[in-house]
Amino acid sequence: MFKNIEDSQVSITELMLPSHSNFSGKIHGGHILNLMDQIAFACASKHSGHYCVTASVNRVDFLNPIEVGELVTLKASVNFTGNTSMVVGLRVESENIQSGEKKHCNSSYFTMVAKDANGNNAKVPGIILNTVDSVRRFARSIERQDQSRKRSTKYNSAQFNIEEYLDIVKQHNVMIDL
């Protein structure tokens, strides 16, 4: 079974309140991460028809601060489907209500796993790739997964060769005391 990407896309908009802010008066990153996890869950669950859990988050860079009083819009879309997992692409934008200025605040990729009623992994429908962007996003997800596997193996403690990295490490703000 396959589904159109558009059928599971989700967006939410929320007003940022003082209770969402940190000590510097900007919206706390943890609040935004919470919203991102919620919308990734909603998108993945809508696509799969199952309860979903977050397996991993691929890089979250906060590009622009979000101010109290701004509207924050989060958009989620399934970029990749495996057998039981999905990669959900997220985009976060803020909008100043008075000026209408919009800022891209961050983008991220959440890997979500579908679960059946017994808590076992559940098969998910595939997605129909019908645009150049959808093919690009799917291919990028495959490459991101391959890079992650290589990173995990490269720095495995059983295979790590310290001699290969000492010169690199010494170029940074560190003191080595082995």
From TrEMBL:
<dbReference type="GO" id="GO:0052816">
    <property type="term" value="F:long-chain fatty acyl-CoA hydrolase activity"/>
</dbReference>
<dbReference type="InterPro" id="IPR033120">
    <property type="entry name" value="HOTDOG_ACOT"/>
</dbReference>
<feature type="domain" description="HotDog ACOT-type">
    <location>
        <begin position="6"/>
        <end position="118"/>
    </location>
</feature>
<dbReference type="GO" id="GO:0005829">
    <property type="term" value="C:cytosol"/>
</dbReference>
<protein>
    <submittedName>
        <fullName>Acyl-CoA thioesterase</fullName>
    </submittedName>
</protein>
<comment type="similarity">
    <text>Belongs to the acyl coenzyme A hydrolase family.</text>
</comment>
<dbReference type="InterPro" id="IPR029069">
    <property type="entry name" value="HotDog_dom_sf"/>
</dbReference>
<dbReference type="InterPro" id="IPR040170">
    <property type="entry name" value="Cytosol_ACT"/>
</dbReference>
<dbReference type="InterPro" id="IPR006683">
    <property type="entry name" value="Thioestr_dom"/>
</dbReference>
<keyword id="KW-0378">Hydrolase</keyword>
<dbReference type="Pfam" id="PF03061">
    <property type="entry name" value="4HBT"/>
</dbReference>
<dbReference type="GO" id="GO:0006637">
    <property type="term" value="P:acyl-CoA metabolic process"/>
</dbReference>
